[in-house]
Design brief:
By secondary structure, the protein is mostly helical. The chain has two domains: 73 residues, no CATH class; 211 residues, Orthogonal Bundle (MetI-like fold). It contains 15 helices and no strands.
Length: 296
């Protein structure tokens, strides 16, 4: 008797039946329809950004398989025109600087706090961590007024500090890193402590080099959160000096009027950096999410 037959006879492995195959087909169909529904608005944005002003009215179709859904000729100059009219160079620079400073602050604060919760035993650590996680249920809008009062009294209104400092700490990022740090064997940290290394040296020399995937994931999520922020920049700034790209795009939408092709071109300019960064970070992102809940 063949090995496969023995396994089947022992009940360890069963050959897939027709019912199993039908379920898989149904699953693939449902997932494909869901993916198509998610990507359809993005395809519409791409096609509209490459149309002429007249084609946004005459060539309209909700189905991407229709010729009217796509432009007859690609108008790449829409992007240059949108960039110039909306003064995206200033807003783009502001978003890059704001996101970079926010990401740096998040990595520092989150890694230090996560290391403390994962590797340092102190009285009430579990209670403090539970309270920290409880803050995740508080809506972001609740922090709006307190943050505004603090920023105003510190004299940070309409400055880079107002857009970055309030978001340099996050309970979710601390939780994500803590779950991964807890998987690193304590023996590695203890051996470093025996050799005379302090907690900070152990974090920098041992824990962080072994945690490239989750740290990169936290950096990516912090970058996306800062890049897409709209409500807080509108509240914390009054001039374009430090306003990010999202605010510039919102202003451009009202200024562009019926020129939908320029509005979609501006939206494409705003999301391209995030898309490129995601494709670069996709492998580490999925790896960190998959491994964050294994232990801890």
């Amino acid at each position: 008797m063949a090995t496969e037959d023995l396994l089947v006879a022992a009940g360890r492995q069963r050959p897939p039946g027709p019912r199993h195959g039908a379920r898989r087909v149904i699953l693939y169909v449902v997932l494909s329809l869901g993916a198509f529904a998610c990507i359809l608005p993005f395809l519409y944005m791409v096609s509209t950004s490459l149309k002429s002003s007249a084609e946004t009215i005459t060539r309209v179709s909700p189905v991407p398989f229709s010729p009217d859904f796509w432009p007859s000729a690609l108008r790449w100059d829409n992007f240059a025109e949108a960039w110039t009219l909306a003064s995206f160079s200033l807003y783009f620079r502001n978003s890059i600087i704001t996101a970079a400073v926010t990401v740096a602050g998040v990595i520092v604060t989150s890694s230090l706090a996560a290391y403390a919760f994962a590797k340092i035993r102190f009285a009430g650590s579990r209670a403090v961590f539970a309270v920290l996680l409880a803050t995740l249920i508080i809506p972001e809008s609740v922090y709006l007024v307190p943050n505004f009062i603090i920023v105003t009294r510190l004299g940070w209104y309409d400055s880079l500090a107002a857009l970055t400092v309030p978001f340099m700490a996050s309970a979710f990022y601390i939780f994500l890193l803590r779950q991964f740090f807890a998987q690193i064997p304590n023996e590695l940290v203890e051996s470093a402590r025996i050799d005379g290394a302090g907690h900070l040296r152990s974090l920098v020399s041992i824990v962080l080099p072994l945690s490239g995937a989750p740290v990169f994931t936290v950096a990516f999520l912090a970058f996306v959160g800062s890049w897409n922020s709209l409500q807080w920049p509108l509240v914390a700034t009054r001039t374009p000096r430090w306003r990010p790209l999202t605010v510039g795009l919102t202003t451009f939408i009202s200024d562009a009027g019926p020129q939908n092709q320029l509005i979609m071109a501006g939206a494409m300019i705003a999301i391209v950096p995030v898309i490129l960064l995601y494709f670069l970070a996709q492998k580490r992102f999925t790896e960190a999410i998959a491994r964050s809940g294994i232990k801890g």
